[in-house]
Design goal:
The chain has a two-stranded antiparallel sheet with strand order 1-2. The chain has one domain. It is mainly α and 82 residues long. The chain has two helices and two strands, in the order H-E-E-H. The longest helix has 37 residues, at 2-38.
Length: 82
């Protein structure tokens, strides 16, 4: 009996995780299709670079090239690199 109960909890947790993943995936897909419409790279929002997130690096003027689009900021380049 105990085993069955454990199994139920496991299934419930899995369902919750799947729902969360579905939500994340659909959010990401919406973002990607929006960026596609604008012809922009979804990773860097068409900027072509990823700014340093930490403020201690704010004085560094050259940011990192976006690895998703190779720094072009174009959706077509991002799509090719997928
Ligand atoms: Zn990019």
């Amino acid at each position: 009996m105990k085993k069955n109960k454990d199994k139920t909890i496991e299934v419930k947790q899995l369902g919750l995780l799947n729902a969360f993943n579905d939500w994340r995936t659909s959010r990401h897909e919406k973002h990607v299709s929006k960026m596609q419409e604008m012809g922009k790279c979804p990773d860097c929002y068409g900027r072509g670079f990823i700014p340093y997130p930490a403020s201690e690096f704010a004085y560094v003027s050259n940011a990192l090239d976006c690895p998703g689009c190779n720094g072009s900021g174009l959706y077509t380049d991002w799509n090719e690199l997928q």
